[in-house]
Write a structure and sequence with these properties.
Layout (H helix, E strand, L loop, with lengths): L2 H14 L4 E3 L2 H6 L9 E5 L1 H13 L3 E3 L9 H5 L3 E4 L12 E6 L11 E2 L13 E3 L2 H13 L6 H18 L20 H15 L8 H11 L11 E3 L10 E3 L1
Parallel strand pairs: 1-7, 2-5
Antiparallel strand pairs: 1-2, 3-4, 4-5, 6-7, 8-9
Helix pairs in contact: 5-6, 7-8
Length: 254
């Protein structure tokens, strides 16, 4: 069975069993303006439905596969979580191979009330009702929240920050260019008036976003990053401490 037929069949089965799916990884990044290319389908699933979702995948003849057969590229690869299934009959090492990846929603810290159905557009005229997505603000808050749990320098934190940067840069700034390639300015080259106005618009956009009551600091740090007053590496992180006897505190958030 080809991947398109496999996708249609298993997504229909998920809908028939009322399995809630949440866009994640490259399909979410595409919706948020980043030009990602992928053949994999990656979804978050409410924890209580994850086991049932995996059973539905196997009932639809999708072959479970190990993430270790692929070079790590997604945050879940570095976190070593989730369930992976092949969507076609290609060898896992073939570039035409594509996968269905199911991840626990709790890993992201997202709440279902922060999600909404995929809007109908010319490219998604009939999106399944059981597939939800998230706004740019919610995606950014989620990436920051997840990155803050990881120790500085970890591959998982690095890829989460990279995803955050993709969503901010491609969503808030004009990344189009003319010619055969994009020209990058030197660090000491001053911004043009147009670039200053674009940065101000981006800052004002973030200031309009809503946050959880205890996470207003996320808006402050994103404003500082977009305004050029802070770096992505300045985001909070977990400090690993030496584990002492009778001490369960193995890290802290700074």
């Amino acid at each position: 069975m080809d991947s398109a037929a496999s996708v249609d069949k298993v997504l229909s089965s998920f809908a028939a069993h009322q399995i809630q799916l949440v866009e994640w990884e490259n399909h979410l990044l595409q919706r948020l303006s980043y030009p990602a290319v992928t053949s994999d389908l990656v979804y978050l699933v409410p924890d209580k439905q994850l086991s049932k979702a995996c059973q539905i995948a196997t009932d639809n003849k999708l072959q479970p596969t190990s993430r270790d057969q692929y070079l790590p590229s997604y945050a879940s690869d570095f976190a070593k979580i989730g369930f992976y299934f092949l969507l076609n009959d290609y060898n896992p090492h073939n570039y035409l191979s594509c996968r269905l990846i199911l991840l626990p929603l709790s890993w992201t810290g997202l709440n279902l009330n922060e999600l909404y159905p995929i809007p109908k557009t010319h490219s998604t005229p009939q999106s399944p009702y059981n597939v939800l997505t998230l706004s740019r603000a919610t995606a950014c808050a989620t990436f920051v929240r997840m990155a803050a749990r990881e120790h500085r320098g970890s591959n998982l934190r690095r890829i989460l920050i990279l995803d955050l940067a993709k969503v901010l840069i491609y969503g808030l700034f004009d990344m189009s260019y003319e010619g055969d390639y994009m020209e990058f300015k030197t660090n000491d080259e001053p911004e043009t008036k147009a670039e200053q106005l674009e940065r101000e618009r981006a800052v004002n956009e973030i200031k309009r976003w809503s946050w959880r009551d205890d996470e207003c600091w996320i808006g402050d740090v994103l404003v500082a990053i977009v305004a050029g007053q802070a770096k992505y590496e300045d985001l909070p992180y977990c400090v690993l401490q030496e584990i002492k006897p009778k001490d369960s505190n193995v890290g802290r958030i700074v």
